[in-house]
Predict the structure.
Amino acid sequence: MKSIPLSRIRSPNVMRISDAMPEMGDDEMLPAIDAETNAQNRDLAIAHWLLGPERTSIDPEANAAYWQTLAASWNITEAEARRRLCANCEYYDNTPGSLEAMEAVPLDAYDMDGGGRGYCTRFDFICHSLRSCQAWEEKEFEED
């Protein structure tokens, strides 16, 4: 199986669900992203971390039940929850190297309306900019 350098998939300082495994350095290799593992990890995030909504929309009234549930889990307003997207999450990696690595995984139905692809370094699957989940953490941007 073709391998991808760890540094091309995620930042080495990001906490991952697999942190219980031995730590790997930047020069070590991870198995290539594959469609089956991607789908399994995504399904776990849907089932256990409220990954969604299934059908995304920029309409501020769409998917109200989903956003209300997610907001309640964070104890914030629905409007605040709608601003917490994968696109601005600490674990969302859409760097050119990650985008290139994700090209190995064919598009599926979940890719068709979620916005741009990015790699979730927390749960190890391909996520999308217009979705969110309970594990969302604010991305820390570097100042110039």
